[in-house]
Design goal:
The chain is mostly beta strands. It is built from no helices and 37 strands.
Length: about 375
């Protein structure tokens, strides 16, 4: 119930790998008395916790970290240096990430997936939030940025703690947000000129809400409301309840739809994780989910409107490839196997919406990924 607390190490690097925290008040805590150079967490899951990960101060690198059905996945307070996040957060009650820090505590989120959270991300402080190659689907609110800059753009970057050089935002997908896609209370700037997609099958409350900084850039993105039969382009003013210098944002911003994919992103991580000795049967399907072969398959592009490609580094005629729609209906893709290096599938006959694409072999799920089909 109490989880684990790190509260004494000073000036050290600590790495936690292949751990599972479940049913804890706080699964893992890095307290304010522990002054680390860096806390790294890899291939680790937090489930059914009040707070999965709680950190105070310094910097964290989270790589393939999974949060599910927690009240808050990662709560970070008084952070003082730049942190990285690559992970999956699903069905969290309050926040997937609730991050607060100084003007030097930037947050870089990349190749991550946020699915069905009350709020995917709240980041506050004078820091910069950079989001790249990530997918937001069916959350009530996707991103809330309080003060500092929001960078969903490929023109302004930061240097993460991992020392990987300057990184940039952009190439994100926002799908079927019910409340706000972007909520802003910021004295900084918002940069969204970065090949982002805002796709809805029903009208959200607001796409943008709050106050933009002095020089916002919102063009070169793709906007679509799709009701199943026609593409709706009437993004009315209420969906853009934002001001810039006291003036309402003009409709010209939301009429821009000249988005072109850059092709620089790999897929957002779908959350499949295997911790040694802890593989579990999926009793609802009678299959066992494994991920040791996850990197064998690359499924792209996402979203797609005509062709879906599956790249197999070890082709086999024993693979079965199928798509499952939101009602649970199974659609076997033709051809149904992955027997060459790259197999292409025509999905133009599928209705627009969200599908789970699965690759199986002898009843074992080798890979699965949510794919948006659009028109």
């Amino acid at each position: 119930h109490k989880g684990i607390t790190i509260n004494s190490a000073q000036g050290k690097n600590i790495t936690i790998v292949d751990c599972y925290f479940e049913y804890a008040d706080k699964g893992l805590t890095k307290s304010s008395t522990s002054t680390l150079d860096l806390l790294t967490i890899e291939t680790t899951a937090f489930a059914n916790c009040s707070t999965g990960l709680y950190t105070v101060g310094d910097a964290c690198n989270l790589d393939h970290v999974y949060f599910s059905t927690c009240q808050t996945g990662w709560q970070a307070e008084d952070m003082t240096a730049t942190s990285d996040f690559k992970g999956y957060s699903g069905s969290n009650g309050a926040f997937a990430i609730d991050y607060e820090g100084s003007s030097t505590a930037h947050l870089y989120v990349y190749e991550s997936r946020f699915l069905s959270n009350a709020q995917a991300m709240r980041v506050s402080g004078g820091n910069k939030l950079v989001v790249r190659c990530s997918s937001f689907s069916d959350n009530e609110t996707d991103i809330q940025k309080d003060y500092g800059d929001l960078l969903l753009d490929n023109s302004v970057g930061i240097t993460p703690s991992s020392g990987s050089g300057t990184v940039y935002g952009g190439d994100n997908t926002f799908y079927n947000t019910t409340n706000y896609s972007i909520s802003l209370n910021t004295a900084g700037n918002i940069y969204v000129q970065g090949h982002n997609q805002f796709v809805y099958t029903t009208e959200p409350t607001h796409i943008f809400y709050g106050t933009l900084g002095s020089s916002p850039t919102l063009d070169n993105n793709y906007w679509s409301i799709y009701d199943g039969s026609t593409t709706q382009t009437n993004f009315y003013a209420g969906m853009w309840s934002v001001t810039n210098g006291g003036n309402p944002v003009l409709y010209a911003y939301n009429s821009t739809n000249n988005w072109n994919a850059s092709g620089a992103c790999t897929d957002a991580w779908d959350g499949e994780i295997v911790i040694e000795g802890m593989a579990r049967d999926n009793t609802s399907t009678g299959t066992k989910e494994i991920t040791s072969t996850k990197n064998v398959f690359v499924i792209y592009p996402n979203p797609t409107d005509k062709l879906l490609h599956v790249q197999c580094t070890t082709p086999s005629t024993n693979y079965t490839i199928k798509a499952i729609d939101m009602t649970g209906r199974i659609i076997y893709l033709q051809p149904a196997t992955c027997n060459s290096q790259t197999q292409s599938f025509d999905v133009s006959h599928l209705a627009a919406g969200l599908y789970q694409v699965m690759i199986e072999q002898n009843g074992i799920i080798l890979a699965k990924q949510k794919v948006v089909v659009r028109r």
